[in-house]
Amino acid sequence: MIVTVTRPLASLSFLKTSLRAFAFIACVSLSMTASAHNVLKSSIPADGSTLERSPSELALDFNGQVRLVKLSLKRSDESIDVGFKPDLTAATSFVVPVPELASGTYSLEFSVIGEDGHTVAGHFNFGIGMPAAHAESGH
Questions:
Q1: Are residues 6 and 26 in the same domain?
Q2: Could you tell me the pLDDT band of residue 20, with boundaries at 50, 70 and 90?
Q3: What's the predicted TM-score (pTM) here?
Q4: Euclidean distance between CA atoms 49 and 45, whole angstroms
Q5: Measuring CA to CA, which residue among 85, 37, 83, 82 is closest to residue 62?
Q6: How far is CA 18 from CA 6, 15, 21, 43, 62, in A?
Q7: Are residues 22 and 78 both part of a single domain?
């Protein structure tokens, strides 16, 4: 009696190849996701906005969990003390109270550390009672 088992072996080979391909695609997808840097999704005030009066707070909303490690607010070349202290607690949103701000153009600079350990810096501008300064290229 001769038994032929070529069909099951062919199916098993196809299954192994399919699983390997799936594993490869999954690994590539995860590595691409892990290497993507966090970005600022939105802010209050918004980049380039003109406000009629001083905001009571600044709000930053990111696309993932980050630790806000630097935040500085400037009017022209004058630094405005907002009492910011770095916090190692990760979050997607941060709210920072600000003192009453005079009319003028402001620049807010920040640095965050993402879940992947990379530090990302960014900035945006806004104006109070006048148009915001144009952002420099290379945000």
A1: yes
A2: low
A3: 0.70
A4: 7
A5: 37
A6: 18, 5, 5, 45, 37
A7: no
Q: Tell me: cis bond preceding 45? Omega within 30 of 0 counts.
A: yes
CA distance linking residue 55 with residue 106, whole number of Å: 12
pLDDT, one tens digit per residue, over 128-138 is 999 998 755 44
Angle made by CA atoms 87, 48, 43, in degrees to the nearest 5: 30
What token pair was written down for 23? 């594993």
5: tokens are: 């088992």
pLDDT the model gives residue 134: 73
pLDDT band of 34, cuts 50, 70, 90: very low
Max CA separation in the chain (angstroms): 97
Domain count, the chain: 2
Q: Can you give the residue range of the structural domain that contains 10?
A: 1-35
- In angstroms, rounded to a whole number, what is the distance separating the alpha carbons of residues 126 and 35? 31
pLDDT tens string 78-101 = 999 999 999 889 999 999 999 999
Close Cβ partners of 117 (under 8 Å, ≥ 6 residues apart) = none
CB 106 within 8 A of CB 25: no
